[in-house]
Amino acid sequence: MRAAIITIGDEILIGQILDTNSGYIAKALDKIGVQTVEMVSISDDKTHILNTFSKFQDQVDLVIVTGGLGPTKDDVTKKTFCDYFDDELVSDPKVLAHVEDLFEKFTGKRQPLLQTNIDQALVPSKATVLFNHFGTAPGLWMQKDNTVFMSLPGVPYEMKGLIDQEIIPKIAREYKRPYIVHKTILTYGMGESLLADKIAGWENNLPEFIKLAYLPSPGRVRLRLSARGMDKALIEKTIEQKVHDLTAIIGDIIVGFDDSETIEVMLGKQLTQKGKTIATAESCTGGKIAQVLTSVPGSSKYYKGSIVAYHKQIKTEMLGVRPETIAQHSVVSAQVAIEMAQNVKKILNTDYGIGVTGNAGPTTDDTPEEIGVVYIALATPHETVVERFNFGQPREKVIDRAVSKSFEMLQKEVLKLKD
Amino acid sequence: MRAAIITIGDEILIGQILDTNSGYIAKALDKIGVQTVEMVSISDDKTHILNTFSKFQDQVDLVIVTGGLGPTKDDVTKKTFCDYFDDELVSDPKVLAHVEDLFEKFTGKRQPLLQTNIDQALVPSKATVLFNHFGTAPGLWMQKDNTVFMSLPGVPYEMKGLIDQEIIPKIAREYKRPYIVHKTILTYGMGESLLADKIAGWENNLPEFIKLAYLPSPGRVRLRLSARGMDKALIEKTIEQKVHDLTAIIGDIIVGFDDSETIEVMLGKQLTQKGKTIATAESCTGGKIAQVLTSVPGSSKYYKGSIVAYHKQIKTEMLGVRPETIAQHSVVSAQVAIEMAQNVKKILNTDYGIGVTGNAGPTTDDTPEEIGVVYIALATPHETVVERFNFGQPREKVIDRAVSKSFEMLQKEVLKLKD
C-alpha cells in the first residue's frame, strides 16, 4: 500500500510558508501501514498538477493533495480534478448548508452569501464528498483505475480534522494493509560515527525486512528500526529480539524508547496521575511555558496559571521578589529565579513552582549577565533547585531551550514521586 | 532560471522529522531570481533518487539535494551521484584535514579517525567540492548537460552555511537571472471571500507578469503580488502603481506592507512610538497572547506582563474578579472578561488591559456557554469594550483566533491615538 502526498501553493515554493501538512499526513498513514513514497510541493499551475497526477497514477494507491481549495482565484485544485477525471462541478446541498451555518454562527445572523462562498459548495459530480467540520471547503475522494486521489484544504486544522475523522478511518475500512512497526531507541552522549562503529556487527545481522536509520541531533542520536510485513507476530518478535541484543551492546547510553509523546503531554499525565499541581512565573520566556503547558487538553487539572512578569516592577509588586535581591544580584540571577519559583508556588498554592529569568536578547537588560544566559528555578514541596544556562542566540532559541529545560527539570522531580 | 529541491530521508516520509531545509533554500533562491518549480522528498533509495534526477534533467537548471550524506549506512547520496555521473569516489585531502581538525577540536586531542569518519572525505572525482565550515560532510556541485546537481548535508545549520556562503554566491556569479519583486499587503478584519469580491475588478486588470495570491490566516488575509521579468524599472513601477490602486479600494483594512511585519511587531512599533503600555489577563488562551507579544525584541518597553488565570480561583484571588460576577454570569461571560481587563490594567498600572475568557474545548468549563465561545475585553484609558466570538473547534483554532482578535481590537484603539 503506497501513497504520495502533493502540496499545492506558490507560497511554499518561495519559502514564505513551511509545509507542515505533508509530515502530519505521512505520520497518520504510517500508523495504519501505508507507506509514503514521495512528497511533492508544486505551484497552483494546472498543467504541472496534471503532470504530477499522471506520474503517480499506477505508481501508488493513494494520492493525497492539500491546498488550492480556498474561495479565491489562485486556487485551482477543484478545476484540475474535473479535468483529470473528465468531470464537472455541481453544487452539493449539504456542503452549502454547512457553509451557511458557519457564516451564521460566526456573524450571529443569517444573511445572503457571497458568490465566492456559494462556490465553496461546488464539487466534481463523481466525487465522494468528505465533510469538513472545521471549515467551508470539503474534502474530495475520487478514483481512477486503481489509484484514489484525495483533495484536502491546506489550512492545517481543517486538513487534520479530515485526515483523522474521514480519510484514515475510510482507508482502514476499505484496504488490506501490511503491518508496520517502528521502534525508536533514544541514545545520549555518543556521536553518530562511534555509535555506528560500535553496533556495526549487530546492524549487519538485521533481517531484510528491518531497516535502520540514524537520526542525529546535538548531544544525542535516535536509532529508528522500521519493520514491515504481513506477519504481525514475526515482526513484533524480531524487533523485540533485536532491541534486546542492542541493549546488551549499548545499554549504558540508551535513555528511552518512546518517540511519540512530547514532554508536556508526559508531564501532564504524570501530574494528573499523582494529583500534583504547578504554577509558573516567567520573565524572558514571556508566557511560552504557560502556552505550551496549556496546549494540552485537560491541563486545567494540574496547571493553575502563570504570572508573566515581563517588567521588573511586576516581579516585585506581583511576585513579591524583594527589591534588595534585584539590587544586589541583578534581575537575571539565581536568587531572583528562586524567589520567583517559591513565591508563585505560594501565591497560586500549588505543589510545584517554576521561576525563569534571563536575557533572551538581542539586547540586554540591566544585568552583568551576557545575552543568552537564563536561570531556571524549580520549587518543590521540599526544596528549591536552580540552574544557570547559556543558550547563546538567537532569541527564539533561547526561549525554546529555556522552556524545554524547565520541563526537563520538572520531570526529573515528578519521576521521583512514589505512586 | 528554474530549480528543483530534493530532500532525501525516510524520517521525513514517515513524518518523524519536518523538512525545514527546502523552505530555507527556496527563499534564498527566490531572493536572487531563481524560481523553485518543485520540492520533492524521497527515501534513501538509489533507484528512486536516480529516477528523480532523470525527471529533472533538462526540466530545470539547478537541482539541489539535501540529506543522505552522513557517515552511516543509511546514507546513499554520494554513491548515487557516482552512478548518475558515471564517476567514482576519491579521497579529498582538504576535506580529510578538515575532518581531522574538527575531531581534534571536539575531543581536545589528535587521534586516529574511525573508518566512517575517513570516508566522510570521499567525493566523486568530477565534483567541485564546496567547503562545509560547520560539519564534516562537504557540499558537491556537478554538471550534466545544462543542469547542475548539488548535494548538501541535511543538518540544517550545515546546509544553511553552504547555501549562504557557497551556493548562492556561486549561482549569483555564474548565471544571468530575471528580476523578482514580491510585495505583500497585510489586511485585517475582512474574510478572504469578501475581500476577493471587493477587489475583483482590480485583480482582473493585473498584467500577465504579476501574480496575486491570497494567504489567509485566522482574522487576516495577506495579499502577495509577485512580479518577474528582465526589466527591473518596469516591474517596480507597475507594482507600485497597483498597490496604490489597491489602497484606494481597501485602504481602511490595510495595516502594513512588510511581510516580515506581523501584527504584534506593528503593535509594538505603535505602542513604543506613542509611549503606551499594555498588560494582559488570560484564561483560555493560556499565555499565548503574552508569548506572541514577547516574541518581539524590545517588547519590554510597552508590555508589562500577564496574569494567566487558568484556574477559576486565580481569577478571583489574583485578578480580583468578584465571586458574585462569576456566580451570576459564569466564568465565560462578558462581565468576567471586563473585570479581568480592567483589573489587570489597574494592577499592572498600564494604559491598556486585555482580558480573555472562553471555552477552548474539547471539554467545557462550568458555564452555559458552548465550546468555542470566547469573550475578549479591552480596557482603555477611557472605556472598556467587550466582544463575544464563537470560534468553533478545534482547541488550537480557538486559541489562535482569540489571540489575533485581541490584537485587532487593540490595534483599532491604538490607531485612534494622535501622534
Summarize the structure.
Chain A has 419 residues and is of the alpha/beta class. Helix content of chain A is 41%, strand content 25%. The longest helix of chain A is centred in the C-terminal third of the chain and has 22 residues, at 395-416.
Helix content of chain A: 40-55%
Largest inter-chain interface? A-B, 106 and 101 residues
CATH architecture heading of the largest domain in chain A: 3-Layer(aba) Sandwich
**Structural class of the helices, strands and pairings of chain A?**
alpha/beta
Portion of residues in beta strands of chain A equals 25-35%
The CATH topology of the largest domain in chain A: Molybdenum Cofactor Biosythetic Enzyme, Chain A
Family (chains A, B): Belongs to the CinA family.
Pfam family, one (chains A, B): MoCF_biosynth
InterPro entries (chains A, B): CinA, CinA-like_C, CinA_C, CinA_KH, Competence-induced_CinA, MoaB/Mog-like_dom_sf, MoaB/Mog_dom
Domain MoaB/Mog (chains A, B): 4-174
Task: Write out key terms for the chains shown.
alpha/beta; homodimer; about 425 residues; about 25% strand; Molybdenum Cofactor Biosythetic Enzyme, Chain A; five-stranded mixed sheet; six-stranded mixed sheet; 17 strands; about 40% helix; Maf protein; 3 domains; Alpha-Beta Plaits
